[in-house]
Amino acid sequence: MEDGAGRGLERQMSMDGKVNSSNGSGKAISIPSCCLKAKLSDPETDAKCHSTVVSGWFSEPHSSSNETVKKVYFNNPMWPGETHSLKVEKVLFKEKSKYQEVLVFQSSAYGRVLVLDGIVQLTEKDECAYQEMITHLPLCSIESPQNVLVVGGGDGGVLREIARHSSVKSIDICEIDQMVIDVSKKFFPELALGFEDPRVHLHVGDAIEFLRHAPKGKYDAVIVDSSDPVGPAQELVERPFFETIARALRPGGVLCNMAESMWLHTHLIQDMISICREIFKGSVCYAWASVPTYPSGVIGFLLCSTDGPSVDFVNPINPIEKMGDALEYRRRLKFYNSEMHRAAFSLPSFVKREVEALRDCSNSLKKVDIQ
Ligand code: SPD
Fold it and tell me: Which regions of the chain does DSSP assign to beta strands (E)?
């Protein structure tokens, strides 16, 4: 079984880490290793590229004693040539839902860990960085957000963060996998408490379908808290998805989309930005934060606004420090503050060079004298 998976991927991957596929005419084309299409062309491989705990260590992505699989999976197209391991104290849950494999384990260094299809989604220790940034970057960039939609986010952490904003009247969440919600309620109560907020309306199902039926202009903000663009989340980085979001946002409404690692996925980021620049007629910016248990230790966020009142993503118009008890609501903020907000838009020189479309946002950082 594993041999089959190994051979499948070998067929696609060349020595330079690029993936060979076909453009439909039978002609081979080269796809950057970070491109989501890489894994799409062999769904069977996806199904087998899942989590394993070997000798008390969880490794991301798949590890195996089988030599072929080892060679191939440690060159996983999403993050070739590397893996991050966590020491496992106890496996608490492992089951296959209709969509993916769901694993929860107790790690010795980061508390409990939620893993979907072999990829770490969150740990108790560092989840604050991701959930707080993906939520407050957009919501602090507009005045008085009222209607918010979360796509994915079945663990409830983003809901917990949105609830800090007292201006918010309604929070829709569309998560495809009921098992993720149930598992979070059982093993991650500090995140799942987000579901207890009376403003939350849960929809279990496909987000694209949900958005197609959403009233035009309904939302002030949409937050896409998805897993990586393989498996169930694959469509969530493609044009039709962004079009449905833009339609569901009010003029001057904002999107914050999980946008991978600037160290590993500049092609994917560039693609997402190019698509979003065409669809969202306001600002399009990239921010990032440190999350030690994600590949390369960072995660990015793509922020877009629709045509309408202009949005300055870099300098928060609605600072969280001025929002009554937002800092302490339910759980004290651990990571986000207005300084981290502004800093998140500062980009390393290599990113500015490689992702051309990113140049303009860091220009709106208020200039400070550098000694
Ligand atoms: N590479 C992992 C990216 C995971 C993003 N989603 C995390 C879900 C936490 N609410």
Answer: 19-22, 28-31, 52-54, 57-60, 84-96, 101-107, 112-116, 119-123, 147-152, 170-175, 200-204, 219-225, 249-258, 284-290, 298-305
Q: Quick one: which of 296, 228, 269, 263 has its CA closest to 82? A: 296
Pairwise CA distance, residues 157 & 121, whole Å: 11
Atom of ligand 1 nearest to the CA of 157: 10
Whether residue 32 has a cis bond before it, omega within 30° of 0: no
- What are the φ/ψ torsions at residue 125 (nearest 5 degrees)? -75, -45
Ligand 1 geometric centre to CA of 131 (Å): 9
Structure token digits, residue 40: 């799409």
Contact 285, 273 (CB under 8 A): no
% the chain with pLDDT above 70: 76
**Tens of pLDDT, residues 253-272:** 999 999 999 999 888 899 89
How far is it, in rounded angstroms, from Cα 3 to Cα 68? 7
pLDDT at res. 171: 98
> Residue 289: left if φ>0, alpha if ψ -120 to 50, beta else—which one?
beta
- Going by pLDDT thresholds of 50, 70 and 90, the confidence category of residue 227 is confident
Ligand 1 contacts CB of residue 155 (under 6 A): yes
| Residue carrying the six token digits 């309408």 | 308
Q: What percent of the chain has a predicted confidence (pLDDT) above 90?
A: 64
Active site residues: 225
* Tens digit of each residue's pLDDT (9 = 90 or more) over 75-114: 466 777 788 899 999 999 999 999 999 999 999 999 999 9
> For position 283, what pLDDT does the model report?
94
Residue of 226, 230, 234 with the most ligand 1 atoms within 8 Å of its CB, for mutation: 226
Report d(CA 265, CA 135) in Å as an integer. 22
